[in-house]
Amino acid sequence: MACPKIAVYPGSFDPVTNGHIDLISRGVKVFDELYVAVACNQAKNNLFSVCERMEMIQEIFADNPRVKVSTFDGLLINYVQEVNAHAIIRGLRAVSDFEYEFQMALMNRNLAPTVETFFMMSKDTYMYVSSRIVKELASLGGTVSDLVHPLVEKKIKEKYRSK
Ligand code: PNS
Predict the structure, then answer these.
(1) pTM assigned to the model
(2) Which domain holds residue 44?
(3) pLDDT one-digit tens code per residue, 121-135
(4) Which of 34, 117, 121, 132 gives 105 a disulfide partner, CB atoms 3.0 to 4.6 angstroms apart?
């Protein structure tokens, strides 16, 4: 039997946006298993805890057992190898994403030459959507219903109501 094709889609996902959801949905059509790996990056001032971020993604993809949601700390490449993945997926929106992504992909290849990074173009509708912009909009009372899943919208509203 052929080895399952396993990929990791890492990110902060604070919170998961429709852009991320689109990428996960398309990525899992290409790979047998897709690990959505929520980074435990304490340095960032996150709105949601790692558990909250994971729970939202888990709920959204509850009916797809090939989407696995987990978390990682430290080097991404170590986590990729731990789950026996051979691919990393990253989304590209605008040219501004490129330099950072290019640097990260080359560094990861340096660390583990057998792991490939695959870039997927964002859907045009979500080209401008980021977790940061969603949070900024919501914090200022704007509506984010076109940018995030209804479940995420509810959680964001709860967060800003309690702040
Ligand atoms: O959603 P983000 O914030 O763009 O995700 C960035 C992330 C978490 C994927 C990236 O910062 C990362 O991989 N961090 C783990 C540390 C690491 O392995 N860095 C690259 C080699 S130095």
Answers:
(1) 0.96
(2) 6-161
(3) 999 999 999 999 999
(4) 117
